[in-house]
What does this fold into?
Amino acid sequence: MNSLRHAALLAASLSLVLLGGCKESPQVLDKKAGEYQGKVDTRPWEGPAYKGDKATWESDLRARSGNQNELRRMPD
Amino acid sequence: MNSLTFARARRGLALLAVTACLAGAQPALAADAPPATSEAATLVQPGNNAATFRDVRRGENQSITFQAPADRTLIQASGERWRQLRNGPITVWGGWMLVGVFIALAAFYKLRGKIMLEGKPTGRLIERFNSVERMAHFVLAGCFVLLALSGLTMLFGKHVLLPLMGHTLFGWLAWVAKNLHNLTGPLFFVSTLFFVALFARDNVWQRVDALWIRKAGGLLSGEHVPSWRFNFGEKTWFWIGVTILGLIVGISGLVLDFPGLGQIRQDMQLAHLVHSVGAILFMSLSLGHIYIGTIGMERAIDGMKSGYVDETWALEHHAYWYETARGRKVSKDDDGTHTPAAAPNHH
Amino acid sequence: MARMKFLCDTERCIECNGCVTACKNEHEVPWGVQRRRVVTINDGVVGQEKSLSVACMHCSDAPCMAVCPTDCFYRTEEGVVLHDKDVCIGCGYCFYACPFGAPQFPQSGTFGLRGKMDKCTFCAGGPEEDGSEAEFEKYGKNRLAEGKLPLCAEMCSTKALLAGDAVEVSNIFRERVIRRGGKGVEAIGWSTAYGKGSADADTRAAAATAPVPEKTGGAQ
Amino acid sequence: MLVKRSNRPSGPASSAQADTASTFSAPRGLDRRSFLKSSGLAAGVGAIGAGLPFAMVRPADAASDSKAAGAVEMRRSVCTHCSVGCAIDAEVKNGVWVGQEPVFDSPINLGAHCAKGASVREHGHGEHRLRTPMKLHNGKWERLSWDAALKEVSEKLLAIREKDGPDATYWVGSSKHSNEQAYLLRKFVSFWGTNNCDHQARVCHSTTVAGVANTWGYGAMTNSYNDMQNAKAIFFIGSNAAEAHPVSMLHILHAKEGGAKIIVADPRFTRTAAKADHYVRLRSGSDIALIYGVMRHIFENGWDDKKYIEDRVYGMDKIREESMQWTADKVLDVTGVPDDQVHLIAETMAKNKPSTVVWCMGQTQHSTGNAIVRAMCNLQLALGNVGVSGGGTNIFRGHDNVQGATDVGPNPDSLPGYYGIAAGAWKHWCSVWGVDYEWVKGRYASPGLMEKSGITVSRWIDGVLEKNELIDQDSNLKAVVYWGMAPNSQTRGKDMLEAMKALELLVVVDPYPSATAAMAASVRKEGVYLLPAATQFETSGSCTASNRSLQWREKIIEPLFESKPDHTIMYAFAKRFGFEKEFVKNIKLDKDKQGWDEPNLEDTLREINRGTWTIGYSGQSPERLKLHMKHMDTFSAHTLKADSGPCAGDYFGLPWPCYGTPELKHPGTPNLYDTSLHVMEGGGNFRANFGVEKDGTSLLAGDGSASKGSDLPFGYPEFDHTLLKKLGWWDELTDAEKKAAEGKNWKTDNSGGIIRVAMKNHGCHPFGNAKARAVVWNFPDPVPKHREALYSTRPDLIDKYPTHEDKKAFWRLPTLYKTVQQQWKNVGKDFPLIMTSGRLVEYEGGGEETRSNPWLAELQQDMFVELNPATAAERGIRDRDWVWVKSPTGSQIKVRALVTPRVGTDTVFLPFHFSGRWMGQDLLNFYPVGAAPIVRGESVNAGTTYGYDVVTMMQETKTTVCQIVKA
It folds into this structure.
């Protein structure tokens, strides 16, 4: 009787463990934005060029994106 | 249909298609048949690349030129499978398995305790391992421990040590571990070959081994089962552990260690899976070996430590070997029915 | 800015390798390390030969990040997948896992052991101070911090390779595909890199809602 | 492209398995930081000695205070690797070229670059450059000072001049010189007293220049890369733009996406063909037959532009007759192209107008090159596509300034501006140079030789080797000066080696002289000098892109090592030769940092402006060009026109012809012969250069076909003082202009007055308004005719379409046609494969420069031959195997096999950029230490055969034969 209960318990816990194997646990630790492992990885607009002016950075980047579109300068 | 509406319709269709494709769905332009491969198509080339790229997306081999990976696969799908296996079953089950074996041994120790000598040590010593054998053993064992620890760091460190140590310290440790692992690996492989050659002769099947199996080595009953130089438990460890797993882990490790020999990514994924599964099994078995060689059995370590064992220990654990070492004859065919002479101090 | 992505238009890519040398030039990438490369499939097969430029795609669920034993990868707010070479141990797992073959390993040390992994940074440097020498030495230039986009795309000879905010990139590509009557609609690698069906909610939303540029004489 | 981009080690520059993940042997790290820090001192294997005055040492202080001092300066230049003319922005910090940024503003490339353009910053490293003057002594390369080098070389040259006359020397100029340097070199050679000078254009587009110019006026690309956006159909034949002119594909694919149909006809399925709507595989060298096949369909279907032909074309009926001969079966027999494909080409070109054609060396490098290009012109004339935006003949030139060097540089048959070398031309230029005509005449051995075309670069080897009594000058060539050209771009490498051996003196002036140096050193012990020249990034000057736009380059960095710009070296030699005063009469001298005299390049351009009226190099003053470079963003990338800003109305780079003086403010000509525009807005018409009448037919254009707004709405001859007087326009000249123009025509009137009056006041074209010539009666084949190549695998076709008769004194040399063809009539038995050659995107020209750039060299580490899987299987050859390519000349080269369906079963393709290996042997030991390129390979031209165009002496490289066996 006892051993049967033990066996059932064992089977249940074993299957739990086995099932656990199918799930990928989160591989990356949580990080705060702009901070990485103690080092500060400044966000692009926080560097010397933009000094935190995100709006300007974004509009500059958008303008830069436009350069990849030759249709802008070659209308039909 | 006038040309304007046609153009509109086409534009609409195109918009749909782009939207779908940007969102990663299958291309919607089923209407355009993919170009035929044959010579008939030499002149005409429509712009629907769906067929061309379908295989690429599936990760199937394509004729790729230049600095394509050596496997000539543009987008490999097997990497994702490897990731699932490594991060899933191998990490999780493997980890629990090691923990489980450890707990089992602890429990066994708790229940059974140390296997003590029954008789009193005589003080008379028999040479069990000569210096070459001991050196071979400890080089191999040393390599094994370094490899096991460094390997564990690489597989589980991220989950166990990293949260404790932080990235910088752990990064440094893992770097040491990886380089140690890569440098020790080849030595381990060579040592294994040497070790196997050295001990294979004494590890072949002997009739008395059957008795050992029947009595499970007497581990639970406490009964002493006679054996030659190595009992069946040791032989199991030797063949399944040191030889088979050792070579599997060693060879797959070399594949990973020397990546410039022409192996492709898929080879290395496979090698890594084999390597890590093999290593976990190897480590699990090794726990048993280490256990019995150290805290599991009184004076078991003497043979490896000094090369000599006490007669009492020899008689209790390796009776036939003891007999021969004492110059008496034991038939090779002895299946355990022969009772060895009583040890000098046997009560 | 939502999400940085690469897109290679195979109707445009002519395998000129401009992106490859632009990258070498900008980051002084050493011999043997190819952060970006151009591949051609079905070489010499009429009607089916296609070339495209491949590098790190900065995946949404990056396999490299998932398998890294030291957790050296991180993702910036713009979705750029970067790594810390101080923590990288050169094990090569990211290379096994990466669908695109992006991670590169310069030789260093005995036995030809792998050195620290090197890969495309989307011209965003690494965790060192932006624009610093340390950053350049380890990761190359940080163009994003200068308000510029990756040089490979900016210098692409036929503007086949596009880089930048997913919305901008999608808009350029869409406008182009519409102009050519729906040909070459595949964004190769996107479903692998950014997920099936729903790479990024914002991309999809952008693709669906952005106005279609009206042009005169478009695809006729 | 597996072999092409090897990922296996080859030679010392072993690369690696890019993706087996790991063992990367990095030969020498070239990173910006160590470059900054240790500068030239860490040059590794390249260092000759630590004591050299490296120009690169200066950068050392740049790094030490990287942040504080040294703001980044932007310098604008133009890529030096092909004719597209891609602008480059260089970031320079404390004299070091630290960064390269795309120039999005450029209307030509919009920031785009190919592999070569994206890696030009490597020129700032120059690790594999020649660092100091060197001479070959006892078979070893020895360093010597500039002073000693100049002294020894000039003494030897003067001795040869004394002994054998000025014509015993040969001067190979460069297509990579700036316009100013190329121009100065022609002047320099003239003052030396010979016409024995030439440059790369001879072996790349001489047949185009001659053929096209003789058809309608100017030998240049009629439209522009940008204008191809307007084409509705584009027909490539003999051009692989995707690899040779990658950035042009920006415009071409833009056109394609707008609906243009692209057809590529080529023996090889190229990267361009991969982007085409239709690909047609033709037998190499059969272009004329294919074009006539196309034209037959055009005429039969009435797709020809009859009004256009009537008004603007002479002799089209003869072309029509000839095309009718080319029935479907004949075309198929000769070209291998079935009639439906031929019809498709004709229909596509005719029904999608304006349609344009593109050709490059695939058409020009044939013994029938001049005829092939004229056949193409005739196709476009029949369709009425010339002088039309979106149409024209878009002839992509090769090197960055091969157009400019052809226009104003060292040509053996012409002074700058295609003036020719008749007495009148000499007098014109002497007046521009400010020197006495009689003095120049005295410099020559005789007036006869002064007006006799020199030997061409394709044949200088015969100038050395040919029997003296057979050559048309006094002495054989004794000395050759290679001033910026690769020896491996000329055919018959085996003979070249003999010629190099036979010379008394070989001088090489080049940043990368090593291919020549190594070849020479492998057969000589003495008498070779190497002088380090600066690249175009180390000086300034203008260059002319293929679309005729001129761009001004700023100096990016100081010359590296001991190198000097070419014009500085020229002046140094002029001093030694004693004509330095005449050489720079109108040109200011500047002192460079080492105190050398450097002729001022702006002044030089102004002198070019003052003399080159013929082709309108007269309006592009340095000031105007610099203004254009500064305001690139104001120019349309579609029309090349600036609609606003300081350059409003101008076309970008003032594409020549930019007529008259700079003050006339001609905007440049975007598309040649375009009658829909006023001449002062870049309009024009065909040139009246061949008389006004031929065999009773008027050659002047028909009524109503003059350029827009012309006061003479009909055909008219070119302007001279008498025509001006007849028209009553003479008094519109100022008194000063009258004085200068009296007795002159528009080309020789150095006041520019005649041009001003004709164009500005009356909307007339100074060169007249005539018909284009479909029949060039002064050429050996007035009507272009298909003729089999000298080495052909089809003896039956040799019988039907034999080559020309041998020529006795052709560019001073006997030249064989029929003799060779008959001798090798059955060559196909032993050499059954057609051998053709072409470009790779990573390398340029002879390749020495680009193969020295690690960023490029890594991409392409082996010389190879492309062969069809079936061809390979027959020979038991597998991909990447080493094979011998054997030529009927007895040469054999060892290369890798690249097995690919890109080529047909009868053809093999080899790239022409390799050198440094010779018939299986690595020449590394013959290079000056450290000056060997990273990648070396066999030169295809070691195996090419005899064969020259019957008009221009263009070499035959595209159609010859070979056999391939496994090595």
